[in-house]
Amino acid sequence: MSGRKLVSGRKLGALGAVSAQFSQAAGSFLLQVLTLRFLGVEGLGRFAMAYGVILIVTSVVTGLTGDSLTVLDRSRPEVRAGLQTWLVAVAVVGGLAMGAIAAVGGWLSPAESAVFGLAGLLFVLEDALRRLLMASLRFWSLVVVDVCALVFSVGVVVLVRAGGEVTLLAPLAGLALGQGVAGIVAVVLLPREERWLARGVRPDLAAVWRYGSWRALQQMLRPTMLAVIRVVVSVAVSLAAYGALEAARVYVAPAMLAVAGISSFFFASYARDHARPLHELRRRADTTVIGLALSASAVGLVATALVPVLGPLLVTGDDELNRLAVLGWAAYAAGTATVTPYGSLAAVRGQQAAVLGFRAAESVLSVVACAVLLALGMSPFAVPLVLAALSVVGGCAMRNVLLREPQAASGSPAPRDATVAAEA
């Protein structure tokens, strides 16, 4: 393949990854917008709490099986059986646990808790199928999957609204139905060579665990940190204040989605090219970081300036978007862009344990810093700015420590148990 065709293919793949990330989040984004309009900031706060828990459980599976199937040789029956066993186990246990905790905790009704648990289980399974499409670099197929999820999830809320009053049960039920339909469509769109179950072999659970456990812990750090921040803000200020902060995050979601989409593409790209010299991959990561950070910053500034125009389309009544919160979340998107590409590259090169250490330190410092500053009187709308600053520090440290030039000279590939599958 010529250099020009390679670059063109990479750009097309990156565009597909961004499109897939936007299409995936479009459903949840619209659900949050509808929840905000029909239930207010407090209703959005409750839905965001539930959705945040689902993301934590999903992040465990994303790291344990999603990243593992991207990096490990999933064509081996015993490895594939291990991936499938871990997926089903975590999905079922996670779904049951989510429903039980919500019911016992009393923050959801029994009916809402049951639907919440089902939505979590289906979300986890559908996300794993999405990761299999990503590992096959079929990002444009993801758009079709996500459009189906969007139509059915949002359609439930619209139908309920047409027939009467919307309660929190509607967006939760929409989320469950949308993920179920999307999972079926994803199976249909998988490449034929990926559409098989490993049977009659002993699952290699250890191989998946050796690589995936580190990635699972790392993947759950950010959603867990954000969930804890939600609790901190709600306790230190109020649930309404958190709801207003969440409304600003929803408003800036497109910038965050672009960062996540590009990052998902480059993780698969780094896995495919893991044997290339490190200095070459690091230059690619540097270019990605600069482009993402500048793009997210530009989108954030424009979004902040347009708050008086676009804000009333998102919130109603006495609620309004806070400009400081909007600017803060835009900065957080840019800050995330400085750490995610370097973390993905280091993980593909077999340094997932070190990446976990850096991300854990960043998450703990973020929670502590926000809690202390809120106790000292900081505005809750400045929380995203604190998170953004610590993300930038973490990204720079990760690049300088984990991706040093002396390692680039050796060009050593990832460990054998992280051998990339040929089709990836």
Description:
This protein is an all-alpha fold and 424 residues long. The chain has one domain. It is 81% helix and 0% strand. The protein contains 15 helices and no strands. It has helices at residues 3-71, 77-105, 110-135, 139-163, 169-189, 205-236, 239-251, 253-272, 278-305, 307-314, 323-337, 340-348, 352-375, 383-402, 405-410. The longest helix is centred in the first third of the chain and has 69 residues, at 3-71. The chain is globular. Mean pLDDT is 80; it is low at 1-9 and 406-424.
How many independent structural domains? 1
Number of helices: 15
User: How much helix, percentage-wise, in residues?
Assistant: over 70%
Largest sheet: none
- Cα distance spanning the termini: 16 Å
State mean pLDDT (0 to 100 scale).
Answer: 80
Note the overall shape: globular
- Percent strand equals under 5%
Q: How do the helices and strands follow one another from N- to C-terminus?
A: HHHHHHHHHHHHHHH
Task: Please sum up the structure shown.
This protein is an all-alpha fold and 424 residues long.
Keywords:
424 residues; mainly alpha; single chain; disordered N terminus
